[in-house]
Amino acid sequence: MLRVFYFAAVLCGLFSSAPVLALDVDPQTYGYPITNPFAATLATTPEALRPKLPEDSDIDQDDYKIQLHPERAFELTDNFWPVTKMGYRLARQKGAAPLVFIIAGTGAAYSSSTPEYLKKLFYGAGYHVVQLSSPTSYDFMVSASRFATPGVSTEDADDLYRAMQAVRAQHPELKVTDYYLTGYSLGGLHAAFVSKLDETRRSFNFKRVLLLNPPVNLYASISNLNKLVQTEVKGVSNNTNFYDLIFKKLTRYFKQKGYIDINEAMLADFQSSKEALNDEQMAMLIGTAFRFSSADIAFTSDLLNHRGLITPPDVKIKKSTDMTPYFRRALTCDFDCYMTEQLIPMWRARYDGGSLNQLIQDVSLYSLKDYLHNSPKIAVMHNADDIILSRGDLGFLRSTFGDRLTVYPLGGHCGNLNYRVNSDAMLEFFRG
């Protein structure tokens, strides 16, 4: 009898110590139709394969503003006056309900298309929803960031946490049963750091946290996006010619259609036409969009901190000021440039920081490995063909999250978030 119990105990020990495997969705049964990761990133999901969502007219929602840094309003130029207060969107249910905070991706405002989609998905399932801009968006940098130098994940999370607390304080009448948190792309990384911060501050006690397509190594993901701008495109020798090429293709496409309507469904149809962009052209288009975000971050951070790297400190920016020379100068500064000239000096001054490798470790999911591994309330959904991932990233996610990681075979970067299968899985996770 003792031998039987001993043998059973050994077996239990073997099974309990075995690694828990991630859920890898079968490519044969998944059904997502876009196999090109660049096309999926740009066009997302065809309309017919998206879930049915409530219309705007069926949602009780409003935009609000909060003054988080009243002292800064007197320092800001006319250009930033409209965003001296932090804006956000709240959709409320009729009675008591759980509340989901949504953190936007790189450079995105709370009202951009992906937060809007996620808002409708969660609202339709019975949640209050709050949409927040990314800490890398110029409006959040101006109104909610203490140092206006995004990129240090712990500081960005602290700014977001303060913003969330301010949102809750502004609506004392809102009846909330539980708090949930999600973010996509860079917002997914931020959600992980916000969740970790909440473990000590205990203001929300998030019931579940969902990271959608987050970067693992933030610097590696940024480098992957930067490389897309350097893609060699046949017949293109500079950015202007590239935009000319895209514009001519779109012109011919709309001329054939007989009307102009730019939306995600149009992009999918466009990619099925003879004017479709090839891989190199799509890569450069995605990379260029990221370069614009980087330029916006570099310009805003430099101006707000009076660093004089892009805008001379003695220049007074007004509504009538020609911004072209500053915009051109900002575009020459990619994210590596922003890190070197603005982020790393600020980080070293505040944290007595050292090498670039130390910063990369501190701002990436690596620094949260133990917490993420041991926290059953946090899950990740990612795509095997996501263009921001580098070698080893999925391995890190597998070893850290186990069966709380779902890997879809297709979708590029966030292209399948509005696919019915993914939407059902998000709701399923929040429902437990």
UniProtKB/TrEMBL annotation:
One of its GO terms (molecular function) is protein serine/threonine kinase activity. SUPFAM superfamilies: alpha/beta-Hydrolases. This is Serine/threonine protein kinase. Gene3D superfamilies: alpha/beta hydrolase (3.40.50.1820). The lineage of its organism: Bacteria, Pseudomonadati, Pseudomonadota, Gammaproteobacteria, Pseudomonadales. Keywords: Kinase, Serine/threonine-protein kinase, Signal, Transferase. InterPro entries: AB_hydrolase_fold (IPR029058), MlaA (IPR007428). Residues 1-22 form the signal peptide. GO terms for cellular component: membrane.
